[in-house]
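SAMPLE LOG
Freezer: B-3
Tube label: C17
Construct: single chain, 276 aa
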Amino acid sequence: MEQQLAEFQSVYNQIEHFLVSYSFQLLGAVIVLLLGLVLARKLGNLAEELMVKHDIDVTLSRFTASAVKVIVMIMVAVIALSQIGVSVAPFVAAIGAVSLGAGLAMQRMLSNYAAGVTIVVTRPFVVGDTISVKGVSGVVTQVRLGNTILTNQDNVRITIPNHHIVGEIIHNSASESIVEMNFDIAYDSDPLKAVELIKAALESQAGVSKTRAPQVGIHDFGANGFTLGLRFWATTGLLFQTRCQTNAAIHLVLQQNGIVIPAPQRDVRLKQVQGQ
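STRUCTURE (predicted):
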């Protein structure tokens, strides 16, 4: 029993000595931490407000605000540790080593984030645009720091790492996609009348752009008739549906006005050889 009391007294004396010797340092460290928390939150919010005020993308604004908070808290933690007499040199060295190792391990991820910042700042496209890059296309639904999300006309979600976008050729057609097609009408039909009828049919379709006029004209002179070429813009999300509806409308209006779409034909002549 006396031995246990002696051990307890020894521990108590050590604690008392520590509190007496370092009480002010502990109090100072706690105060520094509390002030640091408040300062980090205020600086982070201030950074976000300034970036939003200057019309910088909300994703980059929030990322910057979080980065500011983390940096301030690391600095505050180092100061707090130094207040209680803890040497921060080993921690700084350890943080440097860990950062280097993490950087090498997450090189691809960091390149995606760097590319994401570039996309947010330079804004080669925004949410709602239709883009084509690396052989895929769709409507941009989300722009994240690590990747960009597209949705194509089949409602398939496509996730593209941002490092595959920066430095590549990007086709951006805003919220619409272009439709191009060619077909023949018979040479005994009036091509100018057909062009006007097709324009009217296109303009009457709901999915066809009202701000970009369709282009229709004589594209070529084919073996079977006049080759008409047409281009129009359609809402990307309704691209397949709009194309089918416009094809049906064009076929109907040409049929009603007696304009013939000829079938492929070939003239075959038989030559009779004498003596056979």
